[in-house]
Automatic annotation (TrEMBL):
PANTHER family: RAN BINDING PROTEIN 9-RELATED. Residues 46-73 form the CTLH domain. It comes from the Eukaryota. SMART domains: CRA. It comes from Lupinus luteus (European yellow lupine). It holds the Pfam family CTLH. InterPro entries: CRA_dom, CTLH/CRA, CTLH_C, LisH, Ubq-SigPath_Reg. This is CTLH domain-containing protein.
Length: 181
């Protein structure tokens, strides 16, 4: 019974209560309490502050149900979880319609919205989650490298009009090339 109570406290993110319960009951923790705070920060970043991301996570869950051919479960999930979100925010309607349209085709992989079943859709959702986590931790959500590369290209293009200089022509090698050669 103590293990069940501890599991509830840890799963639901009650780190302080889990620590006190551990001290009083002698029940061992299955995970580090520090991870609870991390999970709760992620949960807040996703659920409390970003309804669009939460919708996209739920949409991805619906896509996975459709991918696994759990049609009845997919319809119930869409009705219970996604329709109320659309009622709150009409901007989600098009995404929901596109996703539910997968159910209308015998071969959803080869239909007009079949790209939703591609790995790229999963990666898109994962990137959105990653960006929310980074933002919640006060980090940049985008890598600086692409920005610096664009600045380098722009700077070189502007400098080309004014001077001859060693430049980087192949960004993958990042070697300076002598303009005389």
């Amino acid at each position: 019974m103590n293990n069940l109570v501890m599991n509830f406290l840890v799963t639901e993110g009650f780190a302080d209560a889990a620590e006190k319960f551990r001290n009083e009951s002698g029940t061992e923790l299955e995970m580090d309490l520090a991870t609870i705070a991390d999970r709760m920060a992620v949960k807040q970043a996703i659920l409390d502050t970003n309804p669009q991301l939460f919708f996209h996570l739920q949409q991805q869950r619906l896509i996975e149900l459709i991918r696994n051919e759990k049609i009845v479960e997919a319809l119930e999930f869409a009705q219970q979880e996604l329709v109320p979100r659309v009622e709150e925010n009409q901007s989600f309607l098009e995404d929901l319609e596109r996703t539910v349209a997968l159910l209308a085709f015998e071969d959803p992989y080869n239909c007009p919205v079949g790209e939703l079943l591609n790995t790229s859709q999963r990666l898109k959702t994962a990137s959105e989650v990653n960006a929310a986590i980074l933002t919640s931790q006060s980090h940049d959500k985008d890598s600086k490298l692409p920005r610096f590369l664009k600045m380098l290209i722009l700077s070189q293009n502007q400098l080309d009009e004014k001077a001859v200089y060693p430049r980087i022509n192949d960004l993958s090698k990042a070697t300076l090339e002598d303009p005389a050669t």
